[in-house]
Design brief:
Elements lengths: L6 H9 L4 H9 L5 H8 L3 H13 L3 E5 L5 E5 L1 H4 L2 H14 L24 E2 L5 E2 L10 H6 L3
Antiparallel strand pairs: 1-2, 3-4
Length: about 150
Amino acid sequence: FENMNCSLAQSMEVVGERWSLLIIRDVSFGIRRFDDIQKSLGIARNVLTSRLNRLTEEGILKKAPVDSGRMEYRLTDKGWDLQPVLLSLTHWGDKYKPHPDGKRLTFVDREFGKPIQRMAVHAADGRLLKPKEIRARRGPALKKSTSE
């Protein structure tokens, strides 16, 4: 994906590996230390090290010192900006890959503890759009890189 002139492909180059979004999810839930992330996900230590290094290099996570000289991982603003992606994928999974016992997670507003609405896309004028009502239009960067 590295050489593709596509925002989705470039994003997948950074977070498209199967463990990356789960690591981001855990850190957003407050699981921030290496051993705790490893235990939560059951991921091999070498794979976790590699993914944490990549997410840190990309500026999605940052290392922060905590008690007794230990380090933990925290989301940067760039990392928090991935939260709508996580929410959308979770809502999609609830709809198309449901668990027989019901929802696995309910996302709530941190301040009031009330459930949030499902992710939605709105037009510039505020209208709610269905996925079929959205299309892509070539931007300047794509027009310059193709032979149109």
